[in-house]
Amino acid sequence: MPELPEVEITARLLDRALTGAQIESALAPGINALKTIDPPLSALAGREVLGVRRRGKHLIVEISEGLALLIHLMNAGRLQLYDKRSGPRDRTSRLLVRLADGRELRLREFGSRQSAWVKLLRGNELEQDPALATLGPEAWPDPPELEPLLSAPRPLHALLRDQREIAGIGRSWVDEILWSAMLSPFKRAEDLLDEERERLADAISSTIERALAHYEEVVRLPIPDKLPMPLQVHRHEGEACPRCGATLRSVHFEDYVIAYCPTCQTEGRVLKDRRLSRLLR
What we know:
By secondary structure, the protein is α+β, with helices and mostly antiparallel strands. The chain has helices at 4-18, 123-126, 130-133, 146-149, 156-161, 171-181, 194-218, 262-265, 274-277; strands at residues 23-27, 49-55, 58-63, 67-72, 77-82, 93-99, 104-109, 117-122, 249-252, 257-260. It is built from nine helices and ten strands.
């Protein structure tokens, strides 16, 4: 799933390329992706793109005369800008916004779940929409004070992925953050020592900034179908830890995997499943 760094670089590049562009038309080939009917997509015709920004894992395309497209890429979506319009119907396309200069903005989705979605909202509806209204403070660039967050009796991995608590971090980058901070994913937030809290706060900022610096160097429009994620732990089970050389391990759940280094994060203990993970609570 695209998370804060991936959505942020998408917003940055599209903002630079789209601001001031005139919209010719819009349609939704993936009809299930469009979650609103009023105003209709036809209302975008003739209006100007004012900018693109991010909130949590959401993209917001601001349109003139008080309209905005709210987009969630979900597990496998990409918002891509092309110099030429699509020819034969692209089965991956969920939204097409055609510009007066001949370019085309496409929300494309890969895989079979088809869960990416779009809402066309009026400006006064945007912040009240449940998708945004329920989000916690941003993890970056101005992370919140962690003291209230870390008073919870919850494992760090679950807590940091909870968008109601802190917005933008997901499964990939929470693994990277906790590895950087040398903290067990199963350690309870309320049990952190002051020095561990400081390490975690530093790791959130430095990990996201490192990812964004990498993306600024290597990513260009259109956003690639597969982003070159600079991951050191996540998806690297069985490889050597970049810091200590120990073998990286994973805990497999039904819908996701937690990656970690036993030496750096769990005092040498290898966790096999959720039952064994209770040892670290």
